[in-house]
Amino acid sequence: MSELDRLVELQGLDTRLDQLRYKGEHLPARSELEELHREVERLSGQRDEVAGARSELSAQQKRIEDEVALLDDKIGRENDRMYSGTITSPKELSAIQDELESLGRRKDHLEEKILDLMEAIEPVTSQVAEMETRLADIRAEAGRLEARVTTEQAEIDAEAAQVDSNRAALAAEIPPDLLSRYTKARAGRRDGVAVARLIGSTCGACGLSLPTMFVEQVRHSSGEELFQCEECGVLLAP
Ligand SMILES: [Zn+2]
């Protein structure tokens, strides 16, 4: 096997490694997973908003319930006073009676408000629960996708490790000067192709039809002299 043949083979392995890297970065499960993560973020934001509204309603309910508890205390004390037998003045008893009626009306009003709030809170609570359920479903789906990404990436990594080890063995057989020229040429190219074979009389990388004389030179090259495609600049191997 000539040095250029080895280089072409090395190019094949490097191209495979590039493909594997690309494949790993563009796994469909990976983009599906990113989509789900965005959905979780969006839904969590909505859930937080609705849950915040519910907390506010509950806090209102709590404040009114506290007020009712204070009223109950007061009503209890006034009742105790009225029935204690220590107050005999009809005027004073009638004043307590009036006060009790007023406290009762205030309490009725507050209890109505509590009922209204409870009615308002109920649908909001179910809304939060529905959102939690949807979030849990999406998170479970994301967990399955994560496992799939891990498995698929592990398969890719295993193949890449094998190719990489073949590549290391092959690279050790290529003269350092040639290898370094190849490496530099590859680094400067977006497609990572630095060496290609002639296909008939055309460049195997860009397809340019090359002059006959030049093609002959490439075909009979001992590998000492290197030829480049005038169009795309790859090193040409026979
Ligand atoms: Zn070319």
Structural class: mainly alpha
Strand order of the largest sheet: 2-1-4-3
Low-confidence stretches: none
Distance between the termini: 12 Å
Care to count the β-strands? 4
- Radius of gyration over all CA atoms, rounded: 41 Å
What is the domain total for the residues? 2
Under CATH, the topology of the largest domain can be stated as Helix Hairpins
Q: What is the name of the CATH class of the largest domain? A: Mainly Alpha
In CATH, the architecture of the largest domain is Orthogonal Bundle
- Identify the bound ligands: zinc ion
- Total of DSSP H or I helical runs spanning 4+ residues: 5
Query: What shape does the CA trace take?
Result: rod-shaped
Mean pLDDT: 95
How big a fraction of the residues is strand? 5-15%
Question: Mind describing the biggest β-sheet?
Answer: 4 strands, mixed
The SSE string, one letter per element, is: HHHHEEHEE
- Helix fraction, binned, reads over 70%
Topology:
Layout: H1 3-25, H2 28-83, H3 90-171, H4 176-187, E1 195-199, E2 202-203, H5 212-219, E3 227-228, E4 235-237
Parallel strand pairs: 1-4
Antiparallel strand pairs: 1-2, 3-4
The structure holds zinc ion.
How would you concisely characterize the structure shown here?
With 238 residues, the chain is mainly alpha-helical. Helices cover 76% and strands 5% of the residues. Helix 2 (28-83) packs antiparallel against helix 3 (90-171).
Describe this structure in words.
With 238 residues, the chain is mostly helical. The protein folds into two domains: 20-171, Helix Hairpins (Orthogonal Bundle); 176-237, no CATH class. Helices cover 76% and strands 5% of the residues. It has five helices and four strands, in the order H-H-H-H-E-E-H-E-E. The protein has a four-stranded mixed β-sheet. A hairpin with a 6-residue loop joins strand 3 (227-228) and strand 4 (235-237). The longest helix has 82 residues, at 90-171. It starts with a helix and ends with a strand. The mean pLDDT is 95. The protein binds zinc ion (ZN).
